[in-house]
């Protein structure tokens, strides 16, 4: 308990003192996770909508696959991306391994199925409510996608937040493809793992608190925004 | 614009699984009178509207509009449903979206939106989110949206079934006005009073068949069909005359 108390005090002083190493790590974490979620949303939203609205052979397989991929283990994704990007791998010539870009790629693979699967559910529910009216007005599934995404925006925020939660919290994939290199690819989760194994609980705890606070902050802000907007829009 | 009327249904049947829900329907709708389709629950009124409007495809038979080959009749029709479906945007933007789908040029859209909302008495709510409007206002907005499309034929499926008398009155006034401007009205209703107020002719349906079609005055005065008589008198009739289903020749045929 004494350890915990002193580690907590040290963590506080790091945060209050805006320790430059700490800030760098937090900054890189946000940069990687937000980029990954942004890209995953660009892919996952239309993908989920398409699976929801179009009928094609093998659709059920895609639906099940998307749901299953939501639970993709980060270390496995890390390993696959590692093999693809390593010098001997098919994309080795790009020289991306152990770079923030590699970490973003791995996280996009992790997050896209989450956003796509949740989007599909939201879109299917909306389409069943809107279908007759929209078809009567002359909009088929293809034409209706932008309007449906816009109308589902409050629920889709939750889907994107789920993706952000996954990206910012995972350690396995970024550890493998990033390598946890100081000042290059060290993010919050990888440094927590490292500092704990080194026994430097202060930095680990400080980072842990910041990670929790950021997660709570982002979710809280999104929730308030959603509630206010939804009340206005009905 | 060339007319898409008359609408002809030739031996139209609609089946879900083994249930035949619309049976051998033959019907011609010409320009002019307001047609009110009445009948008990499950008679197939709403299905008939959806078949006419093209939201459902008949299992057998044909639904034919008088369009030239290659032309579509869909752009000359609109439909208002029992529950108004509004997009999460303003009342005006909902009308605008429908106009955009029909490729009405931008320059004309503003004018049409303003006109339609004005006629629905919704001008002051134009910029309110459509989904926070009351149910009655949303239904008026649905009618305004349909009206803005300037359809040649307007289908209404139980458009006032969930509304209170005041809102029903407002919607009926709009239907009158839309009819007066030359749009062909085809509607279903449960409400016999409404059928009297709005109908020029009545189609009486029961168990997927059209049992009677006659001018409204005559229908309410003296329905020919005995089931229609029972219906107009307010009797409950779904347990009666079960044999009718098995002997389709008993049902009079109409052109």
Describe this structure in words.
Chain A is mainly α and 234 residues long. In chain A, 81% of the residues lie in helices and 0% in strands. Chain A has ten helices and no strands. In chain A, helix 1 packs across helix 10, helix 2 (20-53) runs parallel beside helix 5 and helix 2 (20-53) crosses helix 6. Chain A is globular and about 65 Å long. By secondary structure, chain B is α/β, with parallel strands linked by helices. Chain B is 33% helix and 23% strand. Chain B is built from eight helices and nine strands. The two termini of chain B are 26 Å apart.
How is this fold's topology laid out?
The complex is a heterodimer of chains A (234) and B (255).
Chain A (H helix, E strand, L loop, with lengths): L1 H15 L3 H34 L5 H11 L4 H12 L14 H38 L3 H11 L1 H17 L2 H7 L9 H11 L2 H33 L1
Chain B lengths: L6 E10 L2 E11 L5 E4 L6 H9 L6 E6 L11 E4 L10 H11 L4 H14 L15 H14 L4 E5 L7 H16 L3 E5 L3 H7 L2 E6 L2 E7 H6 L4 H7 L23
Parallel strand pairs in B: 3-7, 3-8, 5-6, 6-7
Antiparallel strand pairs in B: 1-2, 1-4, 8-9
Helix pairs in contact in B: 2-3, 2-4, 3-4, 4-5
Specify the structural class of chain B: alpha/beta
CATH architecture heading of chain B: 3-Layer(aba) Sandwich
* Top CATH class of chain B: Alpha Beta
- Tell me the number of strands of chain B: 9
CATH architecture of chain A: Orthogonal Bundle
Order of helices and strands of chain B: EEEHEEHHHEHEHEEHH
| Number of structural domains of chain A | 1
**Mind summarizing the main beta sheet of chain B?**
6 strands, mixed
Greatest contact pair?
A-B, 18 and 24 residues
- The oligomeric state of the chains shown is heterodimer
The biggest sheet of chain A, with number of strands, parallel, antiparallel or mixed sense and barrel status, is:
none
What integer is the average pLDDT of chain B?
A: 88
**What would you call the shape of chain A?**
globular
Under CATH, the homologous superfamily of chain B reads P-loop containing nucleotide triphosphate hydrolases
Computed over alpha carbons, the radius of gyration of chain B is 19 Å
Poorly predicted residue ranges of chain A: none
Count of individual domains of chain B: 1
